[in-house]
Amino acid sequence: MGHIIAIIVVVAIIVFLIVMAIRIVPQAHTYVIERFGRYKRTMEAGIHIMIPFVDRVARKVSLMEQVVDFAPQPVITKDNVTMRIDTVLYFRVVDSKLYAYGVNNPMLAMENLTSTTLRNIIGELELDETLTSRETINTNMRTSMQEATAVWGIETTRVELKNITPPAAIQDAMEKQMKAERERREAILIAEGEKQSAILVAEGRKQSAILNSEGEKESQILHAEAAKEAAILQAEAAKEASIREAEGHGKAIVMLQEANAEGIEVLNQKKPCPEVLQLKGLEAFAKAADGKATKIIVPSEIQSLAGLLTTMKEVGATPSPENPELKDGIAS
Prior knowledge:
The chain has 332 residues and is of the alpha+beta class.
């Protein structure tokens, strides 16, 4: 019976030792192992074997990124304005050994470091720059924190200013300033609108006047062009009428000359006597002296008019057998 109990005790001790020797490290975690109180190694994620009562887990470290929201810190700007700023810090452990042995209380160390770094940066800025330069402040703080926490095995990924709370009097003054600025911008916008409206009205009137003058100019040009065309057409018509009239006169003269020529030819064919020619000249002179002329030049041949008439009478009384048409000619 005693042997059985001893075996059970030995088996239990062996199981206990095995359990104590096996360590399972979760994902994104590390175990810092010490042997006889000194750093031995760092266990990564997975199954590991350690010597019971010789090795021990000194610290369990999480490798995931962590977020710490620090309480608001009072800071003073360059122009002596006190305000409260609370920050949010993002970090992760990159070296478990340094994180375990580099600093005693990493969270308290980072909080104090964030507070002093923030005071140093804000102390170089005025109030307006502090309110409008959040991105610059975040970048400067992350750079400073990264340099300080690297020796602790900590990587600072981001630093954000969560709230910036100036004093109540400053807030009231800022609200009044913002209100005045909004009213000023409103007045400027109203003035700009009225200015643009006046400019547009003036431009409209100017364009209207230009269009009216252009219309009058075009109208005058069209009237002048029409008058010019009418004058040209009238001149062309008068020219054409003159040409036609001249052509008619020319044709009449030609026809008259042709008739005269034909009459002369007929007379030549009839072989008239000198007395008949003188009589024809007398008829032409009578037409010339129809009362319209104020001066008449009498040819010398008319002086023998009496003798010619006497001769014509005698010839008419006794026609010659050689010229029987003479009597008919005189009678006509």
